[in-house]
Amino acid sequence: MKLGGIVQKKYLILMLLFLAQILNFIDKTAINFAIIPISKELNLPTEQVGLVLSSFFLSYAIMQLVGGYLADRFGMKKVLSGAVFLWSAATILTGTARSYISLVSSRFFVGVGEGAFPASTQVAIVDNFQKEVRARAKSVISAGASVGFMFGSIVVTLLIATFDWHLMFIILGVLGAALAIVLWFLLKREEKKVDRSAAASKSIDKTAIKKLLKNPLIWKLMLAAMFTNIVFWGLQSWLPSYWVKVKNMDMVSMGLYSSVPYVLGFLSFLVSGWVLDKFLAGYEKYMFIGGAFFSALFIYLMFNTESIAIAFTYLSLSNVFLNAMNITVFVLPLKKIAEESVGTATGIINTGGQIGSVLTPTIVGYLITVFHQNYNAAFMFLVASSLVVMVVGMTIQSGKKESSSAVIE
To answer: Which stretches make up the Major facilitator superfamily (MFS) profile domain (predicted)?
Structure first.
């Protein structure tokens, strides 16, 4: 293949991953807005609302190790297109839910599909980009999360207001199933090298997993991922209810306001990847430390102001630094872990992250209930969690010489 064809191929794959990430996070954010009318229609108490939100993350966490292995073993095409189709089918089932049990069950299977997605993107980056530019490639895909949240907050609230939450989920599921089919056929020709279902170079042996688990960096990144996800999903899961119930915002205006932080979030992902590649190679810990400190600061300021406009300004700023924390967690494996183990390493790290995701909605719901619908204690829990990431960042070795010892070859 000519050089131009190779370059065109890798950027086509990057664009497809970016689009899939957008849809992924539109689906993720949908339940956080829909849970308001869902809880009214199904008469769900706060504790059950927390369990509905957590059910997705339970299966999502379970799938991290499995998804990482599948991505390493079978390649990105099969895992990615299959994952998108599965979570989209389960999203359609969410729209047909008529009880608490059916709602929890459908959300569980959405998590199964989406859980296989992150590791496959990591494998695709390793297969198509050199180490020197992987942070930027990762930042493009990660930026899709902000785009998904930005448009998701508007599209989801408008669909709910225009139709209802049932049809909103069905529409998103149909769109996702269509994208899965497109991904399968577009990647079929392009991914001959990436899809290595029979290639021994992508097989995972037992000793590789043992080596990964003996690496201190993996455990530190697992811990950082866990508390980063606590902050992120604590905000995503409960802020819509906070704006409506505490700040008395209507659904549509809340959705429009909620899109604003993700505009800055989109830019922050791209800038963070560029900074990590250009200026912080070997010193990524400082992105952790600074991001965690300022994220905690702006979350604290957010819930201590009366003005809705100022509160969303602080939320936007906290989102910028939270994204810097998040991308650093997943850039380090791209640079420090042997290429044949990146998918599995990502799965292990993301398992730690999803432990936080599973626990957070329920913990936050419990705190809100215990403090009689006062959200301040819940927000302080998120502030403290962000500061834990700062402490973890301080323990990571800096400098190119020291950080090279973390590589698993």
So the answer is: 13-401
pLDDT at 191: 44
Domain count of the chain? 1
What is the tens place of the pLDDT at every residue in 140-188? 887 888 788 788 888 898 899 899 999 999 999 999 999 888 878 876 5
Q: Is the separation of the CB atoms in 85 and 109 below 8 Å? A: no
Q: Residue 6: CB partners within 8 Å, gap ≥ 6?
A: none
Where in the sequence is the domain holding 130, given as residue range(s)?
A: 3-406
| Cα gap 2→225, rounded to integer Å | 40
Judge if pTM exceeds 0.70. no
Sign, CA torsion 97/48/375/316: negative
CATH number of the domain enclosing 351: 1.20.1250.20
pLDDT at 314 over 50: yes
Q: Give the number of other Cβ atoms within 10 Å of residue 38's Cβ.
A: 21
